[in-house]
Design brief:
heterodimer; A: 222 residues; alpha/beta; Rossmann fold; 2 domains; 4-stranded antiparallel β-sheet; 33% helix; B: 287 residues; alpha+beta; 9 helices; 69% helix; elongated
Protein backbone atom coordinates (compact mmCIF):
# COMPACT_ATOMS: atom_id res chain seq x y z
CA UNK A 1 0.00 0.00 0.00
CA UNK A 2 2.81 2.40 0.95
CA UNK A 3 6.47 1.81 0.16
CA UNK A 4 9.24 4.31 0.80
CA UNK A 5 12.76 3.61 -0.40
CA UNK A 6 15.73 5.63 0.83
CA UNK A 7 13.54 8.73 1.14
CA UNK A 8 15.27 12.06 1.68
CA UNK A 9 13.69 15.49 1.95
CA UNK A 10 15.56 18.75 2.45
CA UNK A 11 14.46 22.36 2.48
CA UNK A 12 17.48 24.30 1.28
CA UNK A 13 20.21 23.09 3.63
CA UNK A 14 17.83 21.73 6.31
CA UNK A 15 17.47 17.96 6.04
CA UNK A 16 14.08 16.88 7.38
CA UNK A 17 13.99 13.23 6.31
CA UNK A 18 17.13 11.14 5.89
CA UNK A 19 16.99 7.83 4.10
CA UNK A 20 13.64 6.48 5.28
CA UNK A 21 12.71 2.92 4.23
CA UNK A 22 9.20 1.86 5.08
CA UNK A 23 6.49 -0.60 4.08
CA UNK A 24 2.86 -0.28 5.15
CA UNK A 25 0.69 -3.24 4.19
CA UNK A 26 -3.00 -3.01 3.22
CA UNK A 27 -5.29 -2.95 6.23
CA UNK A 28 -2.69 -1.67 8.69
CA UNK A 29 -3.35 1.08 11.23
CA UNK A 30 -0.19 3.15 11.65
CA UNK A 31 0.58 6.03 13.97
CA UNK A 32 3.30 8.40 12.87
CA UNK A 33 4.62 10.28 15.85
CA UNK A 34 7.60 12.27 17.02
CA UNK A 35 8.47 15.72 18.31
CA UNK A 36 7.42 18.88 16.50
CA UNK A 37 9.52 19.39 13.38
CA UNK A 38 10.39 15.71 13.15
CA UNK A 39 8.90 15.54 9.67
CA UNK A 40 5.51 13.86 10.28
CA UNK A 41 3.54 16.30 8.14
CA UNK A 42 6.30 16.37 5.53
CA UNK A 43 6.12 12.60 5.24
CA UNK A 44 2.36 12.74 4.76
CA UNK A 45 2.70 15.53 2.19
CA UNK A 46 5.14 13.36 0.27
CA UNK A 47 2.55 10.56 0.29
CA UNK A 48 -0.17 12.71 -1.30
CA UNK A 49 2.33 14.44 -3.62
CA UNK A 50 2.08 17.94 -2.24
CA UNK A 51 5.87 17.70 -2.01
CA UNK A 52 8.48 15.98 -4.12
CA UNK A 53 11.26 14.09 -2.35
CA UNK A 54 14.84 15.29 -2.69
CA UNK A 55 15.87 11.69 -3.22
CA UNK A 56 14.32 8.24 -3.03
CA UNK A 57 11.11 6.57 -4.12
CA UNK A 58 7.54 6.93 -2.87
CA UNK A 59 4.97 4.28 -3.82
CA UNK A 60 1.31 4.66 -2.84
CA UNK A 61 -1.51 2.39 -3.97
CA UNK A 62 0.77 0.95 -6.65
CA UNK A 63 1.66 4.37 -8.09
CA UNK A 64 5.13 5.82 -8.00
CA UNK A 65 4.30 9.20 -6.54
CA UNK A 66 7.64 10.98 -6.82
CA UNK A 67 7.64 10.75 -10.62
CA UNK A 68 3.91 11.19 -11.14
CA UNK A 69 2.97 13.77 -13.77
CA UNK A 70 0.52 16.58 -13.05
CA UNK A 71 -2.03 14.84 -15.23
CA UNK A 72 -1.84 11.71 -13.06
CA UNK A 73 -1.98 13.48 -9.70
CA UNK A 74 -5.81 13.58 -9.47
CA UNK A 75 -5.94 9.79 -9.87
CA UNK A 76 -3.61 9.34 -6.89
CA UNK A 77 -5.42 11.88 -4.76
CA UNK A 78 -8.84 10.43 -5.52
CA UNK A 79 -7.58 7.10 -4.21
CA UNK A 80 -6.69 8.70 -0.86
CA UNK A 81 -8.69 10.21 1.95
CA UNK A 82 -6.61 13.02 3.39
CA UNK A 83 -7.52 14.77 6.63
CA UNK A 84 -5.54 17.99 6.69
CA UNK A 85 -4.26 19.63 9.84
CA UNK A 86 -5.63 22.99 8.68
CA UNK A 87 -8.90 21.44 7.34
CA UNK A 88 -8.61 22.93 3.83
CA UNK A 89 -12.34 23.49 3.43
CA UNK A 90 -13.64 25.55 0.55
CA UNK A 91 -14.76 28.82 2.17
CA UNK A 92 -17.38 29.73 -0.47
CA UNK A 93 -19.16 26.41 -0.25
CA UNK A 94 -21.48 25.16 2.44
CA UNK A 95 -20.63 22.18 4.62
CA UNK A 96 -22.71 19.87 2.42
CA UNK A 97 -21.29 21.32 -0.81
CA UNK A 98 -17.74 20.81 0.48
CA UNK A 99 -18.46 17.09 0.55
CA UNK A 100 -20.68 16.70 -2.53
CA UNK A 101 -18.10 18.65 -4.50
CA UNK A 102 -15.46 15.95 -3.87
CA UNK A 103 -17.92 13.12 -4.41
CA UNK A 104 -18.72 14.53 -7.86
CA UNK A 105 -15.06 13.97 -8.86
CA UNK A 106 -15.62 10.31 -8.12
CA UNK A 107 -18.33 10.16 -10.76
CA UNK A 108 -21.36 10.21 -8.46
CA UNK A 109 -24.55 11.79 -9.74
CA UNK A 110 -25.60 15.02 -7.98
CA UNK A 111 -28.41 13.17 -6.23
CA UNK A 112 -26.22 10.29 -5.05
CA UNK A 113 -23.43 12.68 -4.02
CA UNK A 114 -25.93 14.69 -2.01
CA UNK A 115 -27.34 11.57 -0.35
CA UNK A 116 -23.95 10.18 0.58
CA UNK A 117 -22.64 13.54 1.80
CA UNK A 118 -25.68 13.92 4.03
CA UNK A 119 -25.25 10.41 5.48
CA UNK A 120 -21.57 11.06 6.18
CA UNK A 121 -22.41 14.35 7.88
CA UNK A 122 -25.04 12.58 9.95
CA UNK A 123 -22.47 10.02 10.98
CA UNK A 124 -20.24 12.89 12.10
CA UNK A 125 -23.14 14.54 13.93
CA UNK A 126 -23.05 17.60 11.70
CA UNK A 127 -26.11 17.16 9.49
CA UNK A 128 -27.84 20.06 11.22
CA UNK A 129 -25.04 22.36 9.99
CA UNK A 130 -25.17 21.22 6.38
CA UNK A 131 -26.07 24.69 5.07
CA UNK A 132 -23.52 26.56 7.15
CA UNK A 133 -20.34 28.00 5.71
CA UNK A 134 -16.99 26.87 7.15
CA UNK A 135 -16.22 30.30 8.60
CA UNK A 136 -19.27 30.05 10.87
CA UNK A 137 -18.18 26.69 12.35
CA UNK A 138 -16.01 26.09 15.40
CA UNK A 139 -12.56 24.57 14.94
CA UNK A 140 -13.86 21.16 16.05
CA UNK A 141 -16.79 21.32 13.62
CA UNK A 142 -14.50 22.30 10.76
CA UNK A 143 -12.25 19.39 11.65
CA UNK A 144 -15.23 17.02 11.52
CA UNK A 145 -16.32 18.36 8.13
CA UNK A 146 -12.78 17.79 6.85
CA UNK A 147 -12.93 14.25 8.20
CA UNK A 148 -16.36 13.69 6.66
CA UNK A 149 -15.02 14.85 3.30
CA UNK A 150 -12.09 12.44 3.52
CA UNK A 151 -14.27 9.49 4.47
CA UNK A 152 -17.31 10.11 2.26
CA UNK A 153 -15.99 8.23 -0.77
CA UNK A 154 -14.64 5.31 1.29
CA UNK A 155 -11.00 5.47 0.23
CA UNK A 156 -8.70 2.48 0.64
CA UNK A 157 -6.01 4.61 2.27
CA UNK A 158 -6.61 7.37 4.80
CA UNK A 159 -3.89 9.84 5.71
CA UNK A 160 -4.67 12.00 8.73
CA UNK A 161 -2.49 14.88 9.87
CA UNK A 162 -3.19 15.67 13.54
CA UNK A 163 -6.89 14.84 13.12
CA UNK A 164 -7.70 15.31 16.80
CA UNK A 165 -5.78 18.56 17.20
CA UNK A 166 -8.92 20.68 17.35
CA UNK A 167 -11.23 18.22 19.06
CA UNK A 168 -12.04 17.79 22.74
CA UNK A 169 -11.26 14.46 24.40
CA UNK A 170 -14.73 13.01 23.79
CA UNK A 171 -14.83 13.93 20.10
CA UNK A 172 -11.23 12.78 19.68
CA UNK A 173 -12.16 9.38 21.09
CA UNK A 174 -15.18 9.23 18.77
CA UNK A 175 -13.04 10.06 15.76
CA UNK A 176 -10.46 7.44 16.64
CA UNK A 177 -13.22 4.90 17.08
CA UNK A 178 -14.51 5.85 13.63
CA UNK A 179 -11.06 5.46 12.09
CA UNK A 180 -10.73 2.07 13.81
CA UNK A 181 -14.07 0.99 12.32
CA UNK A 182 -12.95 2.06 8.86
CA UNK A 183 -9.67 0.22 9.35
CA UNK A 184 -11.60 -2.85 10.52
CA UNK A 185 -13.54 -2.70 7.24
CA UNK A 186 -10.24 -3.03 5.35
CA UNK A 187 -8.94 0.51 4.81
CA UNK A 188 -5.35 1.40 5.63
CA UNK A 189 -5.05 4.29 8.07
CA UNK A 190 -1.98 6.44 8.71
CA UNK A 191 -2.35 9.02 11.48
CA UNK A 192 0.31 11.63 12.22
CA UNK A 193 -0.03 12.79 15.81
CA UNK A 194 1.96 14.00 18.76
CA UNK A 195 -0.83 13.00 21.18
CA UNK A 196 0.68 10.19 23.25
CA UNK A 197 -2.70 9.30 24.77
CA UNK A 198 -3.95 8.17 21.33
CA UNK A 199 -1.02 5.79 20.93
CA UNK A 200 -1.77 4.09 24.21
CA UNK A 201 -5.50 3.82 23.54
CA UNK A 202 -5.29 1.94 20.25
CA UNK A 203 -3.20 -1.15 19.65
CA UNK A 204 -1.57 -0.16 16.38
CA UNK A 205 1.81 0.02 14.70
CA UNK A 206 3.68 3.13 15.83
CA UNK A 207 6.47 4.80 13.88
CA UNK A 208 8.50 7.34 15.82
CA UNK A 209 10.32 9.86 13.66
CA UNK A 210 13.56 11.10 15.20
CA UNK A 211 16.33 13.17 13.66
CA UNK A 212 14.97 12.57 10.19
CA UNK A 213 14.80 8.80 10.49
CA UNK A 214 12.52 6.16 12.00
CA UNK A 215 13.62 5.79 15.61
CA UNK A 216 11.05 3.17 16.59
CA UNK A 217 8.74 0.90 14.61
CA UNK A 218 6.43 -1.41 16.58
CA UNK A 219 3.54 -1.72 19.01
CA UNK A 220 3.14 1.03 21.65
CA UNK A 221 4.30 1.21 24.36
CA UNK A 222 7.71 -0.16 23.43
CA UNK B 1 -20.89 17.66 -15.72
CA UNK B 2 -21.52 20.57 -18.11
CA UNK B 3 -24.48 21.69 -15.99
CA UNK B 4 -22.22 21.57 -12.95
CA UNK B 5 -19.52 23.64 -14.68
CA UNK B 6 -22.07 26.20 -15.87
CA UNK B 7 -23.50 26.44 -12.36
CA UNK B 8 -20.00 26.91 -10.90
CA UNK B 9 -19.15 29.50 -13.55
CA UNK B 10 -22.37 31.39 -12.87
CA UNK B 11 -21.49 31.21 -9.18
CA UNK B 12 -18.19 32.96 -9.88
CA UNK B 13 -20.02 35.71 -11.79
CA UNK B 14 -22.64 36.13 -9.08
CA UNK B 15 -19.96 36.58 -6.44
CA UNK B 16 -19.13 39.95 -8.03
CA UNK B 17 -22.17 41.06 -10.01
CA UNK B 18 -20.97 44.62 -10.59
CA UNK B 19 -17.59 43.55 -11.90
CA UNK B 20 -19.25 40.90 -14.09
CA UNK B 21 -21.65 43.49 -15.51
CA UNK B 22 -18.73 45.89 -16.01
CA UNK B 23 -16.82 43.24 -17.92
CA UNK B 24 -19.86 42.53 -20.11
CA UNK B 25 -20.35 46.22 -20.90
CA UNK B 26 -16.64 46.78 -21.57
CA UNK B 27 -16.55 43.80 -23.93
CA UNK B 28 -19.78 44.97 -25.60
CA UNK B 29 -18.38 48.48 -26.15
CA UNK B 30 -15.16 47.12 -27.66
CA UNK B 31 -17.07 44.72 -29.91
CA UNK B 32 -19.63 47.37 -30.95
CA UNK B 33 -16.89 49.79 -31.95
CA UNK B 34 -15.24 46.94 -33.82
CA UNK B 35 -18.55 46.12 -35.53
CA UNK B 36 -19.19 49.72 -36.56
CA UNK B 37 -15.62 50.06 -37.76
CA UNK B 38 -15.98 46.99 -39.93
CA UNK B 39 -19.32 48.28 -41.24
CA UNK B 40 -17.61 51.51 -42.22
CA UNK B 41 -14.78 49.56 -43.84
CA UNK B 42 -17.34 47.61 -45.88
CA UNK B 43 -19.06 50.87 -46.81
CA UNK B 44 -15.95 52.45 -48.31
CA UNK B 45 -15.00 49.29 -50.22
CA UNK B 46 -16.82 50.37 -53.43
CA UNK B 47 -14.79 53.58 -53.42
CA UNK B 48 -11.65 51.48 -53.27
CA UNK B 49 -12.84 49.39 -56.22
CA UNK B 50 -13.60 52.49 -58.29
CA UNK B 51 -10.06 53.71 -57.93
CA UNK B 52 -8.30 50.67 -59.31
CA UNK B 53 -9.09 51.34 -63.02
CA UNK B 54 -6.33 52.39 -65.41
CA UNK B 55 -5.74 56.10 -66.00
CA UNK B 56 -4.68 57.63 -69.28
CA UNK B 57 -2.14 60.40 -68.69
CA UNK B 58 -1.84 63.17 -71.25
CA UNK B 59 1.72 63.88 -72.46
CA UNK B 60 2.18 67.03 -74.50
CA UNK B 61 5.20 67.02 -76.77
CA UNK B 62 7.04 70.04 -78.14
CA UNK B 63 5.37 71.55 -81.20
CA UNK B 64 6.97 71.36 -84.58
CA UNK B 65 8.54 67.96 -83.97
CA UNK B 66 9.09 66.63 -87.38
CA UNK B 67 7.40 63.36 -88.26
CA UNK B 68 10.59 61.34 -88.24
CA UNK B 69 11.76 62.72 -84.90
CA UNK B 70 8.36 62.13 -83.32
CA UNK B 71 8.22 58.53 -84.55
CA UNK B 72 11.77 57.90 -83.30
CA UNK B 73 10.96 59.35 -79.89
CA UNK B 74 7.78 57.26 -79.66
CA UNK B 75 9.61 54.06 -80.63
CA UNK B 76 12.24 54.72 -77.94
CA UNK B 77 9.57 55.40 -75.30
CA UNK B 78 7.62 52.27 -76.22
CA UNK B 79 10.78 50.18 -75.98
CA UNK B 80 11.66 51.68 -72.58
CA UNK B 81 8.14 51.08 -71.21
CA UNK B 82 6.75 47.88 -72.74
CA UNK B 83 3.85 47.73 -70.24
CA UNK B 84 2.58 51.20 -71.18
CA UNK B 85 0.14 51.84 -73.97
CA UNK B 86 0.75 54.92 -76.12
CA UNK B 87 -1.91 56.54 -78.23
CA UNK B 88 -1.41 59.65 -80.31
CA UNK B 89 -4.46 61.82 -80.04
CA UNK B 90 -5.40 62.81 -83.60
CA UNK B 91 -5.19 66.58 -84.16
CA UNK B 92 -8.91 66.82 -85.01
CA UNK B 93 -9.83 65.07 -81.75
CA UNK B 94 -7.58 67.43 -79.81
CA UNK B 95 -9.06 70.37 -81.66
CA UNK B 96 -12.59 69.18 -80.88
CA UNK B 97 -11.70 68.82 -77.18
CA UNK B 98 -10.20 72.28 -77.09
CA UNK B 99 -13.21 73.65 -78.91
CA UNK B 100 -15.52 72.18 -76.32
CA UNK B 101 -13.58 73.78 -73.53
CA UNK B 102 -12.88 77.08 -75.26
CA UNK B 103 -15.70 77.71 -77.81
CA UNK B 104 -14.13 80.95 -78.97
CA UNK B 105 -11.19 78.95 -80.41
CA UNK B 106 -13.40 76.78 -82.59
CA UNK B 107 -13.21 79.04 -85.60
CA UNK B 108 -9.42 79.41 -85.42
CA UNK B 109 -8.95 75.68 -84.93
CA UNK B 110 -11.24 74.87 -87.85
CA UNK B 111 -9.42 77.18 -90.25
CA UNK B 112 -5.71 76.71 -89.61
CA UNK B 113 -5.08 76.02 -85.94
CA UNK B 114 -4.83 72.25 -86.11
CA UNK B 115 -1.47 72.48 -87.79
CA UNK B 116 -0.21 74.64 -84.89
CA UNK B 117 -1.25 72.20 -82.20
CA UNK B 118 1.56 70.29 -80.51
CA UNK B 119 1.43 66.51 -80.64
CA UNK B 120 -0.49 64.98 -77.72
CA UNK B 121 -0.09 61.42 -76.45
CA UNK B 122 -2.28 59.45 -74.09
CA UNK B 123 -0.19 57.08 -72.03
CA UNK B 124 -1.98 54.32 -70.12
CA UNK B 125 0.25 52.81 -67.43
CA UNK B 126 -0.30 50.45 -64.46
CA UNK B 127 1.30 53.12 -62.27
CA UNK B 128 0.20 56.47 -63.72
CA UNK B 129 2.57 58.39 -61.46
CA UNK B 130 5.51 56.79 -63.27
CA UNK B 131 4.53 58.62 -66.46
CA UNK B 132 5.90 61.76 -64.85
CA UNK B 133 9.40 60.46 -65.58
CA UNK B 134 8.81 61.47 -69.21
CA UNK B 135 9.05 65.12 -68.14
CA UNK B 136 12.83 64.67 -68.13
CA UNK B 137 12.80 64.11 -71.90
CA UNK B 138 13.63 67.27 -73.92
CA UNK B 139 10.86 66.38 -76.37
CA UNK B 140 8.19 66.59 -73.68
CA UNK B 141 6.56 69.89 -72.89
CA UNK B 142 4.30 68.76 -70.07
CA UNK B 143 2.72 65.74 -68.45
CA UNK B 144 -0.93 66.03 -67.41
CA UNK B 145 -2.45 65.02 -64.08
CA UNK B 146 -1.53 61.46 -63.12
CA UNK B 147 -4.48 60.90 -60.80
CA UNK B 148 -8.20 61.04 -61.21
CA UNK B 149 -10.61 62.01 -58.47
CA UNK B 150 -11.50 58.31 -58.13
CA UNK B 151 -7.89 57.36 -57.60
CA UNK B 152 -7.43 60.11 -55.05
CA UNK B 153 -10.57 59.05 -53.20
CA UNK B 154 -9.51 55.42 -53.35
CA UNK B 155 -6.12 56.30 -51.94
CA UNK B 156 -7.78 58.13 -49.04
CA UNK B 157 -10.28 55.30 -48.59
CA UNK B 158 -7.46 52.76 -48.54
CA UNK B 159 -5.78 54.64 -45.72
CA UNK B 160 -9.07 54.91 -43.85
CA UNK B 161 -9.67 51.18 -44.30
CA UNK B 162 -6.20 50.36 -42.99
CA UNK B 163 -6.83 52.65 -40.02
CA UNK B 164 -10.22 51.09 -39.34
CA UNK B 165 -8.75 47.59 -39.55
CA UNK B 166 -6.04 48.58 -37.09
CA UNK B 167 -8.69 50.01 -34.75
CA UNK B 168 -10.72 46.78 -34.99
CA UNK B 169 -7.65 44.67 -34.21
CA UNK B 170 -6.85 46.94 -31.26
CA UNK B 171 -10.43 46.64 -29.95
CA UNK B 172 -10.33 42.84 -30.21
CA UNK B 173 -7.00 42.90 -28.38
CA UNK B 174 -8.60 45.07 -25.67
CA UNK B 175 -11.48 42.57 -25.37
CA UNK B 176 -8.93 39.75 -25.09
CA UNK B 177 -6.99 41.66 -22.46
CA UNK B 178 -10.12 42.49 -20.44
CA UNK B 179 -11.22 38.86 -20.33
CA UNK B 180 -7.70 37.74 -19.55
CA UNK B 181 -7.41 40.20 -16.65
CA UNK B 182 -10.82 39.10 -15.36
CA UNK B 183 -9.79 35.42 -15.29
CA UNK B 184 -6.38 36.30 -13.89
CA UNK B 185 -7.94 38.22 -10.98
CA UNK B 186 -10.47 35.45 -10.36
CA UNK B 187 -7.68 32.87 -10.27
CA UNK B 188 -5.77 34.91 -7.72
CA UNK B 189 -8.92 35.47 -5.68
CA UNK B 190 -9.59 31.73 -5.66
CA UNK B 191 -5.97 30.55 -5.49
CA UNK B 192 -6.49 28.83 -2.13
CA UNK B 193 -9.62 27.08 -3.34
CA UNK B 194 -7.86 25.89 -6.47
CA UNK B 195 -5.03 24.50 -4.35
CA UNK B 196 -7.56 22.67 -2.17
CA UNK B 197 -9.41 21.36 -5.21
CA UNK B 198 -6.16 19.95 -6.56
CA UNK B 199 -5.36 18.36 -3.20
CA UNK B 200 -8.69 16.57 -3.03
CA UNK B 201 -8.31 15.15 -6.52
CA UNK B 202 -10.08 17.58 -8.83
CA UNK B 203 -9.05 17.20 -12.46
CA UNK B 204 -7.85 20.21 -14.43
CA UNK B 205 -11.05 20.38 -16.55
CA UNK B 206 -13.11 20.44 -13.35
CA UNK B 207 -10.93 23.25 -11.98
CA UNK B 208 -10.67 25.29 -15.19
CA UNK B 209 -14.19 24.73 -16.50
CA UNK B 210 -15.96 27.24 -14.25
CA UNK B 211 -13.44 29.97 -15.13
CA UNK B 212 -13.93 29.32 -18.84
CA UNK B 213 -17.69 29.52 -18.31
CA UNK B 214 -17.32 32.71 -16.24
CA UNK B 215 -15.50 34.30 -19.19
CA UNK B 216 -17.74 32.86 -21.90
CA UNK B 217 -21.06 34.02 -20.39
CA UNK B 218 -20.21 37.76 -20.31
CA UNK B 219 -18.56 37.28 -23.71
CA UNK B 220 -21.70 35.81 -25.24
CA UNK B 221 -23.87 38.49 -23.64
CA UNK B 222 -21.45 41.17 -24.88
CA UNK B 223 -21.50 39.66 -28.37
CA UNK B 224 -25.30 39.78 -28.50
CA UNK B 225 -25.35 43.33 -27.15
CA UNK B 226 -22.68 44.38 -29.64
CA UNK B 227 -24.61 42.84 -32.56
CA UNK B 228 -27.74 44.75 -31.58
CA UNK B 229 -25.80 47.98 -31.00
CA UNK B 230 -23.91 47.67 -34.29
CA UNK B 231 -27.15 47.15 -36.19
CA UNK B 232 -28.69 50.18 -34.50
CA UNK B 233 -25.52 52.25 -34.96
CA UNK B 234 -25.26 51.40 -38.66
CA UNK B 235 -28.92 52.37 -39.11
CA UNK B 236 -28.32 55.72 -37.43
CA UNK B 237 -25.20 56.44 -39.49
CA UNK B 238 -27.09 55.45 -42.66
CA UNK B 239 -29.64 58.16 -41.99
CA UNK B 240 -26.76 60.65 -42.04
CA UNK B 241 -25.08 59.29 -45.17
CA UNK B 242 -28.30 58.95 -47.18
CA UNK B 243 -29.23 62.53 -46.27
CA UNK B 244 -26.15 63.76 -48.16
CA UNK B 245 -26.77 61.37 -51.07
CA UNK B 246 -24.24 58.70 -50.11
CA UNK B 247 -25.10 55.00 -49.91
CA UNK B 248 -26.41 53.53 -46.66
CA UNK B 249 -23.99 51.92 -44.19
CA UNK B 250 -25.01 48.31 -43.75
CA UNK B 251 -24.25 45.79 -41.02
CA UNK B 252 -24.66 42.46 -42.83
CA UNK B 253 -25.92 39.37 -41.01
CA UNK B 254 -22.55 37.67 -41.30
CA UNK B 255 -20.91 40.59 -39.54
CA UNK B 256 -23.47 40.47 -36.72
CA UNK B 257 -23.08 36.70 -36.39
CA UNK B 258 -19.32 37.20 -36.40
CA UNK B 259 -19.63 39.68 -33.52
CA UNK B 260 -21.57 37.14 -31.43
CA UNK B 261 -19.01 34.45 -32.26
CA UNK B 262 -16.15 36.82 -31.44
CA UNK B 263 -17.88 37.80 -28.21
CA UNK B 264 -17.88 34.15 -27.22
CA UNK B 265 -14.53 33.07 -28.59
CA UNK B 266 -12.28 36.00 -27.66
CA UNK B 267 -12.93 35.81 -23.87
CA UNK B 268 -12.90 32.02 -24.08
CA UNK B 269 -9.52 32.12 -25.78
CA UNK B 270 -8.25 34.67 -23.28
CA UNK B 271 -9.46 32.53 -20.38
CA UNK B 272 -7.92 29.36 -21.82
CA UNK B 273 -4.63 31.19 -22.36
CA UNK B 274 -4.60 32.63 -18.83
CA UNK B 275 -5.56 29.29 -17.27
CA UNK B 276 -2.84 27.46 -19.17
CA UNK B 277 -0.33 30.06 -18.04
CA UNK B 278 -1.56 29.82 -14.45
CA UNK B 279 -1.34 26.01 -14.49
CA UNK B 280 2.27 26.23 -15.62
CA UNK B 281 3.08 28.55 -12.74
CA UNK B 282 1.50 26.46 -9.98
CA UNK B 283 2.73 22.94 -9.54
CA UNK B 284 2.17 20.53 -6.72
CA UNK B 285 5.24 21.74 -4.86
CA UNK B 286 3.79 25.21 -4.45
CA UNK B 287 0.58 24.06 -2.80
Amino acid sequence: MIRLKNLHKSYNSRRVLRGIDLNVEPGEFVFLTGPSGAGKSTLLRLLYAAERPTEGEVWVNGLRVDTLSHRELPRLRRSLGVIFQDFKLLPRKTVLENITFVLRFHGLSPKEAHRRAYLTLKRMGLHHRQSAYPATLSGGEQQRVAIARALAYQPRLILADEPTGNLDAELAAELMSLLCDINYQGATVVVATHDQSLLAAIPARVLVLERGGIGYDGIWPP
Amino acid sequence: MIRHLVAEGMGLLKERPLVSAGLTVALAVALTLGGLTLSAALWIRPILASGTGEVAVAVLLRPHLEGGVFDQWLATAEKAHPDWRFRRVPPDELAASLGERFPYLRKLLAEEGQALLPPLLEVTAPDPAAVRTLEASPAVLAVGPVATIHRTLASIARRIEAGLTAITVALVAIAFLLASIWVHLELYRHADEIAIMRLVGATEPAIRGPYLVSAAIPGLAAGLLAAAATRAGAGWLSRLTTTVGLPAIEAPGTLLAGLVAFGLLVPLGAAAFTLARHARLTDAASL
